[in-house]
Amino acid sequence: MSPRTKLRSALKEPITTKEAINHDVDLATKICWRELPRVSRSFALVIQNLPPELDRDVMVGYEVLRTVDTIEDSLLDRQTKKETFRLFRNILNNGLKGEKILALQRALDAGTYKELDKAVVHYMVPNIFTVLNSLGEKQREIVSRTALEMSRGMAREDFLDIQNLEHQDEYCHYVAGLVGIMLTDLFRASGRLDEKRYGEIYPYSEPYGIGLQKVNILKDMNSDLCENRLYWPRDVVEKHGFTKLNILEKAGENLEEAMAVVNEIVIDTARHLDNGVIYVTKLPANEKKVRMFSAIPLYMAIATASLMYNNPEVYTMPLKIPRSETMAITRKLDSIILDNAKLVEYYNELFYDKLDGVREPLVL
Predict the structure, then answer these.
(1) For the domain 156-364, what is the CATH code?
(2) pLDDT of residue 316
(3) Do residues 178 and 209 lie in contact, with contact meaning Cβ atoms separated by under 8 Å?
(4) What residue ranges do the domains of the chain occupy?
C-alpha cells in the first residue's frame, strides 16, 4: 500500500473514543498513521516513504517516544511528572492494562495545553501501545528498551539546568542519541543492515541523533524561554556576560558577545553533524529509501545550523529555513543520495562554507 493510500484509508476511520484503550490492531494502526502528520508533518513524510513494514516499525517507535516527550513537555509539577514517567514504564513492562493507560491519559490531559500534545493524549496513547505489542519480538524490544531508557533520562532533575557542553551532550543522548541508536537497531532487525555493516555504522548512530537535537535546542530558544527553560550551556552563556534568563532581553545591548554564544554552540555541534553525515554514507548504497529517510532531517538541521551562525535574528525571531529551500534540499539529496563524495561535498557547501574557516570541513 502506498503512503498516500495508507493515509487516505486511515482518515476514513472514526476517531477512537477518548479515555479508552483500543485493542483492535488494524484500527489502532490506522489511527496512529492518521495522527502522525498531525503531530509532525516533516517526520510523517520521511517515515511514510520507508520500505513496507520498516515504515510501521519506525512510526511506532516515533509515536512511543513522542509520548515520552509529551510527558517531559507537560506542565505537570516535577513530582507528578516523575510519577507519570513511572506509570509509562509500568505500562511498557507489564503489558496492556486499561486502567494504567487510562491513568496515563488523564495525567497528560491535565498537564498539556498545546493542540499537538492533545492529539498525543487523546488519540496516540489509547492506540500506540496496542500497535507496539503487535510488532515482531525484536522490534518491540528495541522500541520498548529505547523508551524506558529515554524516560529515565528525561526524569533527571540535573537536566533542568545544563551546565556545560558535555552536560548538554549527555542530555541530548537521552532525548535524541537514543533515537539514532533505535533507528539503527530497527534497520538491522528489518534485514537492511548485516552484522558487518551494523558494526561499522553503530558508533555514528548516537552522534547522528545528538546533532539533530543540538540544532533544535538552538532553534527553539524563543519558545523554550517562554516556558521558563533553556537548554543552552550555563558556562557558555555566562562566559559572555549573560545569564540564561536575561540573554534574550540583553542580547541587543552586546550583540557581539551574544553572537559569540550562538557561534560557540554551532561550532560544537559541527562534530556531531560530521558524524551524522558519515552515518548516512555508511548506510547500504542499495537502500535509497533508508538513506533518504536518514539524510533529509539531517541536511535540514545542517541548513538550519548554517542559518543561525553569526545571525543576530536568532534573538529576535524563531529561525526556520524557507519552504523553497527545504524542497531544494530534498531534490538535491534525491539526486546525490547514493554518491558519498557528493553528500560530503554538499554538506561542506551548506555548512562549512558559512563558518569562515573556523573549523576544517569534513573529509571522508
Answers:
(1) 1.10.600.10
(2) 87
(3) yes
(4) 1-140, 156-364
